[in-house]
Specification:
Number of domains: 1
Radius of gyration: 18 Å
Site (Important for substrate specificity): 170, 225
Protein name: S-methyl-5'-thioadenosine phosphorylase
Order of helices and strands: EEEEHEEEHEEHEHEHHH
Number of helices: 7
CATH class: Alpha Beta
EC number: 2.4.2.28
Helix content: 25-40%
CATH superfamily: Nucleoside phosphorylase domain
Strand content: 15-25%
Largest sheet: 11 strands, mixed
CATH topology: Rossmann fold
Number of strands: 11
Shape: globular
Binding site for phosphate: 12, 54-55, 87-88, 189
Bound molecules: ligand LNRAV4D5, adenine
CATH architecture: 3-Layer(aba) Sandwich
Catalytic activity: S-methyl-5'-thioadenosine + phosphate = 5-(methylsulfanyl)-alpha-D-ribose 1-phosphate + adenine
Length: 290
């Protein structure tokens, strides 16, 4: 049974949503293990949502340790069809200053150690990922940000998010390289999440909260967690306002999304010949296609 159509993943600094009402914690188990924490089901202005703290509510998981598959599968189990990811990012471009918000439209993968598919073990699928973010959901998110006229915050629609492995921040050489590629922001979490969300046919968009200028900027020698968290705390209230306004807009009109049929032409294996165990494991993703 659907518990919530809208999911929210809170990143560094955003461990809960203060405006959530009728809150219930659910400990979801998935075929891919346990999520980062209990999922918090509740209502935001009468709309049901599911919230998850990506690194756990006490921030105990490194980016490389995140159970990405369990997190996305758990959202799917609760019936989530639209997923908003809030994330701290460093800026690679002068115009995106700390406290700004970016709604990226592309990713570059610099991770080395992430499992970012549900498939394998006898079932092969290749999803299209040319447009990794749901542009309709990103549009609603961008419009929500714009409508709030938040002081000190400039909205940047579009831009490329470099997803690095971490946990150490980049070297200057790396930071300059990413700038030369035209990338706008850098973080450590959103790419595997976006891939898995697409495989799970969930529309995904990122609310990127700029916390620092990474290490390329001549006026900022290096990036420190202190700087990042300080800025994110200043922005946490704004981020919650944006999410609340986005959910309000979604409750009036859930946009169509190509993500919702992402597996239609992606599965290469003849499912009637596929291993039963794998079909059972991926049941929630495959049920439409069996
Ligand atoms: C605390 S700075 C580095 C940390 O913050 C970002 O996390 P999230 O995307 O969950 O907000 C970044 O990706 C790193 O994991
Ligand atoms: N400069 C940076 N690099 C990678 N991840 C980040 N998260 C916040 N700031 C970051």
């Amino acid at each position: 049974m659907t518990q919530a159509k809208i999911g929210i993943i809170g990143g560094s600094g955003l461990y809960k949503m203060d405006a959530l009402k009728d809150v219930k914690e659910v400990h979801v188990e998935t075929p891919f293990g346990s999520p980062s924490d209990a999922l918090i089901l509740g209502t935001l202005d009468e709309t049901r949502v599911a919230f998850l703290a990506r690194h756990g509510r006490n921030h105990t998981l490194l980016p490389s340790e995140l159970p990405f598959r369990a997190n996305i599968y758990a959202m799917k189990q609760l019936g989530v069809e639209y997923l908003i990811s809030a994330s701290a990012v460093g800026s690679l471009q002068e115009e995106a200053k700390p406290l700004d918000m970016v709604v990226p439209d592309q990713f570059i993968d610099r991770t080395k150690n992430r499992v970012s598919t549900f498939f394998g073990e006898g079932i092969v699928a290749h999803i299209a990922f040319g447009e990794p973010i749901c542009q309709n959901l990103a549009g609603v998110l961008g419009d929500a940000i714009a409508s709030l006229n938040l002081p000190e915050v400039t909205l940047h629609r579009g831009g490329t998010y470099v997803c690095m492995e971490g946990p150490a921040f980049s070297t200057k050489a790396e930071s300059h390289l990413y700038r030369s590629w035209g990338a706008k922001i850098i973080g450590m979490t959103n790419l595997p999440e976006a891939k898995l969300a697409r495989e799970a046919e969930i529309a995904y968009a990122t609310l990127a909260l700029v916390t620092d200028y990474d290490c390329w900027h001549p006026d900022h020698d290096s990036v420190t967690v202190e700087m990042v968290i300080g800025n994110l705390q200043r922005n946490a209230v704004n981020a919650q306002k944006v999410i609340q306004e986005t959910v309000r807009r979604l409750s009036e009109n859930l946009p169509p999304s190509d993500a919702h049929s992402a597996l239609k032409y992606a599965i290469l294996t003849q499912l009637d010949k596929a291993p039963t165990q794998t079909k059972e494991k991926l049941g929630l993703l495959l049920q439409k296609y069996l």
